[in-house]
Design brief:
Blueprint lengths: L7 H9 L5 H19 L2 E4 L1 H16 L11 E5 L26 H8 L3 E6 L33 H8 L5 E6 L5 H7 L2 E4 L19 E6 L2 H11 L17 H4 L8 E5 L9 H16 L3 E5 L7 H16 L18 H12 L2 H14 L8 H21 L2 E5 L15 H6 L5 H5 L4 E7 L7 E7 L4 H15 L8
Parallel strand pairs: 2-3, 2-4, 7-8, 7-9
Antiparallel strand pairs: 1-3, 4-6, 5-6, 5-10, 9-11, 10-11
Helix pairs in contact: 2-3, 5-6, 10-12, 10-13
Bound molecules: glutamine.
Glutamine binds next to loops.
Length: 485
């Protein structure tokens, strides 16, 4: 098995035992990139030179006997909306095509202290708005299991890179499903952490009250390792939670005896493909076989989740994206006549269609005439959805549902119909609305089939329970499957 195919935990042990060096591993990953990147197109920017220099530095530290993190020397790719000092961060937008941040996001500061090797910046939907990575200004990433299909979005590059072994692990961001949904389509594991567990400082804001950075990896253990490294209180993020976090990888335990799993009937209704339902139910049965207790529950406001999500997220986006005005940083139109014209031309030319649609929708729902009818109602529904989850978690430990209603769709299939595209988020947005953690773990992983994800949703800060259940399931059915590229 080539080095790039191995999981982070396997590689970490090999590095520690000096069976391999980080330079060897990093070269293996870049060799893989040179073989498959033409087909997959997961990256916007590659950073091979700095990656190899960092790998050599880690090898030197190790040779000198330094005490290193389990992540030291592991090649990790970063979604292109996370600020990386000195490395271009575009948000897949023309607006930031040439933007090089002068600072690191807090997650990057943390990961650099763990001595990770940064492979480069991964493709995404522009400003993380989308469900297929087709909204990137630069390129369309392909699903490694079928190059005619989308990898999901908005962290499509992050999921495809893990599946295609173009990075050992990656970071994504999830505002309404953007880590879990592409993880599901690409057959990898993705965790959306509890709101406030991971600092958003340096994450280019889409919808600040919903955004969270989180890990994607080949295995549950890898994701637990990376999550442990990035979480923690940060004074640079006012919504960051004051708490201590355990070592989630060390806590991993596949004992699910007595674990109460809730099945919300609303997540198995119309619009969810039969094959997906069957795969998820089978996965729950596997956990039941291992001693988990399954219970049907109801989350009646699920029907309103999509509308609330698209109102709240667009409202926040319209405000957050006001800063891209051609003055502060980024793109500016070349020809204009005065200040107002400059704003207008810069924003017309700098943003793509989906981003403009969200800004218009957001501005509309916040306008004085419509605020009560839309934004206020969406916020009330947010409270109701959160309350229903809180009620459910009095009776169950985790909730099991599909991550996405169908397997990956064809490139171009939903591009002319935004509402159809939005509908693919129906199983994921509730989690962000309620600020909960959730994981997607592959549950249809047979050769010849497109991947499907099992979504496990937990109560706030119950990442340990989610990871434990996902780990138990993964152990029973087998882990990562390499796509045929
Ligand atoms: N697909 C959703 C949207 O387009 C979620 C995006 C995200 O989580 N960043 O808004």
């Amino acid at each position: 098995m080539a080095l790039y195919e191995k999981s982070a935990s396997q590689l970490s042990a090999m590095l520690k035992n000096k069976e391999i060096s980080s330079v060897e591993l990093t070269k293996s990953v870049f060799e893989r990139i040179s073989q498959v990147e033409d087909k997959v197109e997961a990256y916007i920017t590659l950073d091979e030179e700095n990656a190899l220099a960092k790998a050599a530095e880690v090898d030197k530290k190790r040779a000198e006997g330094a005490e290193l993190s389990p992540l030291a020397g592991i090649p990790i790719g970063i979604k292109d909306n996370i600020s990386t000092k000195g490395l271009r961060t575009t948000c897949a937008s023309r607006m930031l095509e040439n933007y090089v941040p002068p600072f690191d996001a807090s997650v990057m500061t943390k990961l650099r202290a763990h001595d990770i090797v940064v492979t480069g910046k991964l493709n995404m939907d522009e400003f993380a708005m989308g469900s297929s990575t087709e909204n990137s200004y630069f390129k369309k990433t392909k699903n490694p299991f079928d190059l005619t299909r989308i990898p999901g979005g908005s962290s499509g590059g992050s999921a495809a890179a893990v599946a295609a072994c173009e990075a050992v692990m990656t970071l994504g961001s999830d505002t309404g499903g953007s880590i879990r949904q592409p993880a599901s389509y690409c057959g990898v594991v993705g965790l959306k952490p509890t709101y406030g567990a991971v600092s958003r400082y340096g994450l280019v804001a889409f919808a600040s009250s919903l955004d969270q950075i989180g890990p994607l990896g080949k295995t549950v253990e890898d994701v637990a390792m990376l999550q442990t490294a990035i979480c923690g209180h940060d004074k640079m993020d006012a919504t960051s939670a004051y708490r201590e976090y355990p070592d989630l990888a060390a806590l991993l335990n596949s004992d699910v005896k007595g674990l109460r799993i809730g099945i919300p009937d609303e997540y198995f209704g119309e619009g969810i493909e039969d094959g997906v339902k069957a795969a998820v139910i089978e996965a729950v049965k596997e956990l039941e076989k291992q001693g988990a207790v399954v219970k049907h529950i109801s989350l009646p406001s699920t029907d309103y989740a999509l509308s609330s999500y698209y109102i709240i997220s667009s409202a926040e986006a319209s405000s957050n994206l006001a800063r891209f005005d051609g003055v502060k940083y980024g793109f500016r139109a070349e020809e204009y006549d005065g200040l107002v014209d400059m704003y207008e031309k810069t924003r017309s030319q700098g943003f793509g269609d989906e981003v403009k649609r969200r800004i218009m929708l957001g501005t509309f729902v916040l306008s004085s005439g419509f605020y009560d009818a839309y934004y206020k109602k969406a916020k009330l529904l947010q409270r109701r959805i959160s309350a229903e989850f809180a009620e459910a978690f009095r009776e169950v430990d985790v909730i099991a549902a599909p991550t996405v209603p169908t397997p990956a769709f064809k490139i171009g299939e939903n591009t002319d119909d935004p509402l159809k595209m939005y509908a693919t988020d129906v199983c994921t947005v509730t989690v962000n609305i309620a600020g909960l953690p959730a994981i997607s773990v592959p549950c249809m992983n047979k050769a010849g089939e497109l991947p499907v994800g099992l979504q496990l949703i937990g109560d706030k800060f119950a990442e340990d329970k989610l990871l434990g259940a996902a780990y138990a399931y993964e152990k029973a059915v087998g882990g990562f499957r390499l796509p045929n590229l």
